[in-house]
Amino acid sequence: MKSRKEQQIEEILLRRYDRYYRLAFGYVKNQQDALDIVQESACRAIRECGKVRNTEYMETWVYRIVVNTSLEFLRKQKREDLTEEVIELHPPSGDGKEELEMIFSRWTLRDVLEKLSPKEKSVVMLRFFEDCRLEEIAQITGENLNTVKARLYRALRKMRTGMGEKNGR
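Predicted structure:
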């Protein structure tokens, strides 16, 4: 028989599954890995839900589990020293000017996010992709509110600088 907390966690997981998946995918950039992370996070949440003291924070607690599981996955992946994908470069046709312009105009948000530290990336993703308030982000990450604010502003400054440099400003 399931406890009340287990039932609450299962309801939260079902209701927010898409958000947890998007968050994990933002870290790992791979559908299968993101699905694995969400599944592992769900198992951890159900297994550990008895430790939650205040049930009104269960949603942010699950976000924290997804963030931590994603970061653990990335650290493990780095340790395993996976082989890098090889990108074939084709010689440009003609003088290559058009191809170079096309390559340099492909600045995406993903490229900008990759330049951030994992902690900065977490704050940005939670704030802008998951619409979390700064107080919620502080709870999810286990950081002081002022630390979260500073990290967010530093990340936004880095992102602006990176985009400005890439766009030739």
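Summary: Helices lie at 4-28, 31-48, 58-79, 97-104, 109-114, 118-129, 134-141, 145-166.
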